[in-house]
Amino acid sequence: MKDAEPKRYFLKTFGCQMNVYDSERMAESLAREGYGETDNPEAADLVILNTCHIREKAAEKVYSDLGRLRDMKERRRKDGKETVITVAGCVAQAEGAEITTRQPAVDLVIGPQSYHKLPELVARSKSTRTNIVETEFPGDEKFTRMKAPRRIASPSVFLTVQEGCDKFCTFCVVPYTRGSEFSRPVARIEAEARELADAGAKELVLLGQNVNAYHGEGAGGRSANLAELIRVLASIGGIERIRYMTSHPRDMDNELIAAHAEVRELMPFLHLPVQSGSDRILAAMNRKHSAAEYIDIIARLRKARPDIALSSDFIVGFPGETDQDAEETIALIKAVGFAQSFSFKYSARPGTPAAGRDGQVPEPLKGERLQRLQAVLDSQQTAFNAQSLGNAVPVLFERIGKSGEIVGRSPHLQLVHAVGPGDLVGRTARVAIDDTRRSGLSGVIAAA
């Protein structure tokens, strides 16, 4: 008797690092149910789109994919094969049942707080032949029911410690798609981190929509902050590096700044979005910090950790932004100096306060301002990378590259390419930097 073919899933991930983490956890739960992974949706019994809602056209890209998947599902049906199409993530949370109304081929809509239910929801959808929408916010249940991963794909791993946001920036959908701030207990994070270390993880990247607002239950039932959590995780054997993202300037407290000076494992890199250099625009964004306050935070960080590298996010063309506001943002960039950054034209998100405001900036003007801002940021990144020339930097190698290269990252999160043996993946070695690339650095591995 011929064995039944194994069930297979196809998983496409959009957006942020937290979505990557969530996809990894979904993959682990499916593996425990006997599913194997495929990179070909035509071969998949279960197709999952783990979506992001942060950009204006994100939902439309999802619906475009769903149109193609609908046709694929019909082809498989004619061949006697069943396909379950699932939309997960922030688009699922934001649009809910509207997804199945607009695209009936979708069988399951599941929000980011309900991934622990994925296998049972897939089974229910198949047995009842009905569309299922699951977008509740069950808090810690997602983490307690999803077991720690059994395998890791890289020595640098994501670890979600906090979800949601209470800041309600006027351009942002996160409070509506991820809910209010929730922090996992220290003990549960530590337990997962120890399992990751046992599996070979060398670097932990702590994730949260507002990660430095972390306030999980610590020793004795009291609330612990991010600095305390970092110190706990830094004591785990095998963990060489710790990073965290994404942070808010309002939650950059003195204890966290001190941790950058005192915890050897905490890397000298910080992604701290400012969004604008104009106080008028920052107030309109409901950011609750000023440009001067941001610059002061940076000064205190650099006093604590002089070699720290900084990254940020910038939104260009927010409603009401004038030429003067744009100039003030560039002035802040020049005053701070960034190693790398992300910058975007403002895009209206339905349901956010800024979406319906007067003073929407014309697209051509947004483009002009963005181009000028990015030229300054690119020159700063080039200058920062050039500082590494001639230096030997410790690199944690993460993967095999092209043409005999292995690829890793410096303490400042720069990609580093070097020719070397594949058995260095998962290990740290010093690399003498002899060239810079648009994507980072390259050099020669120092002799042991």
Could you describe the 3D structure shown?
The chain has helices spanning 17-32, 58-78, 90-95, 97-102, 118-128, 141-145, 174-177, 186-198, 226-234, 254-262, 279-284, 291-304, 323-336, 363-386; strands at 8-13, 36-37, 46-51, 84-89, 108-110, 132-134, 156-160, 162-163, 182-183, 203-207, 241-245, 269-271, 309-316, 340-345, 392-400, 405-409, 415-419, 428-437, 440-445. By secondary structure, the protein is of the alpha/beta class. It has four domains: 8-134, Methylthiotransferase, N-terminal domain (Rossmann fold); 148-267, Transcription Regulator spoIIAA (2-Layer Sandwich), CATH 3.30.750.210; 269-386, Transcription Regulator spoIIAA; 392-445, OB fold (Dihydrolipoamide Acetyltransferase, E2P) (Beta Barrel). The strands form five sheets. A six-stranded parallel sheet has the order 2-1-3-4-5-6, sandwiched between helices. Helix 1 (17-32) links the parallel strand 1 (8-13) and strand 2. Helix 9 (226-234) runs parallel beside helix 10. The mean pLDDT is 90.
Summed over residues and divided by their number, the pLDDT gives a mean of 90
Tell me, what is the CATH class of the largest domain? Alpha Beta
Main structural class: alpha/beta
Strands side by side in the biggest sheet: 2-1-3-4-5-6
Distinctive features:
alpha/beta; Transcription Regulator spoIIAA; six-stranded parallel beta sheet; globular
Give the topology.
Blueprint: E1 8-13, H1 17-32, E2 36-37, E3 46-51, H2 58-78, E4 84-89, H3 90-95, H4 97-102, E5 108-110, H5 118-128, E6 132-134, H6 141-145, E7 156-160, E8 162-163, H7 174-177, E9 182-183, H8 186-198, E10 203-207, H9 226-234, E11 241-245, H10 254-262, E12 269-271, H11 279-284, H12 291-304, E13 309-316, H13 323-336, E14 340-345, H14 363-386, E15 392-400, E16 405-409, E17 415-419, E18 428-437, E19 440-445
Parallel strand pairs: 1-2, 1-3, 3-4, 4-5, 5-6, 7-10, 10-11, 12-13, 13-14, 17-19
Antiparallel strand pairs: 8-9, 15-16, 15-18, 16-17, 18-19
